[in-house]
Write the structure tokens for this entry.
Amino acid sequence: MNSDIVDLRSFYATTLGRLAERSIAMAITSVWANLPNERLVGLGYVLPWLDRFGTDAERVFAFMPATQGAVNWPPQGPSATALVFDEELPLVDSSIDRMLLVHSLEHAENPRETLKEVWRVLAPGGRLVVVVPNRRGVWARFEHTPFGTGRPFSRGQLTELLREANFTPGPWSDALFFPPSRRRWVLRFHQLLERSGRRLWPMFSGVIVVEAQKRLYQGLPVTKRSSRRVFVPVLSPQGATRAARTPPRL
């Protein structure tokens, strides 16, 4: 089950969504190394955090998977949003300094292929920051939030996946220790629950955050990857047969 762009925007417009955004931002800050004038790309639904972490970047793009949908961003100025297929990003090799993945990897059809494509577009020594639902967390068990959809991960599973894609995992962080409740009296104590959770039940966080670095010293076997997608030209009628599209011979 994939999260739709409308559902994602609606969730982050709620009180629960704003508190979740703030908690995740604090976790990302703890692993976010300062790279001035970087080229930053967000993959998934990353708009709430690109506004915060993209202020010092040379250029910022928001890539949204085709299965999710896209919205215009930023509200002012030229659009920096693109609707993409996450296994075939519209970027040349080694063209990006850092990528941020939120609401992306857990919905990918093939997470390994998605990470290999991210590896391709990252510059040597480039950094990847991944935010995924925690398999042990409470948030992954309720579908009224975007973290209850898709494929949750444990730290071990995410580490293995990153290493298979030729990334070296670095610092880790966690977020969303308060329960995903809509009740106001529960949300009123979210700061206390968040601080207590970091000390008392760290393994049950709602999301896992990790920064990884592109690894260059290990060779990769050269294989030809064929896309599973069939792209249809926009002007080609869906029901048209080959005979109908082929002009008659004179």
Summary: The first helix runs from residue 5 to 12. The first strand starts at residue 39 and ends at 44. DSSP finds eight helices and seven strands in the chain.
